[in-house]
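User: Hey, quick favor. My workstation is busy. Could you predict this chain's structure for me?
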Amino acid sequence: MWRLLRNCAARKRSLQSHRGEGCGRAVIGNTTDFLQKVIEQAVEAAVRKALATSDTKKRRLLSAEEAGVYLSLSKREVYNMIANRQLPVVMQGRRKMLDVQDLDDWITQHKV
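Assistant: No problem, here it is.
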């Protein structure tokens, strides 16, 4: 963000020197337009990131942390459910992976 503001300030000085203007309206208008576009792009990128669905639908096996995000639970709660045999796991070495279909079944079973 600071880099953009520095670039904007440098652009403003450059425009002022080329036009021979002090703090003219054209320079302020151009700077304001530039800043407005930068802010709009940053907000748009943040909204896209916030609304983006994770790639968990594309993969069948998830880690406990990813399963927690998928179920809106903490990683610790997912591990507790595994220990209590509420969720089946696929062992990959020492790593415990959860099947998305099993998670969907668990959601279906716990609907009221």
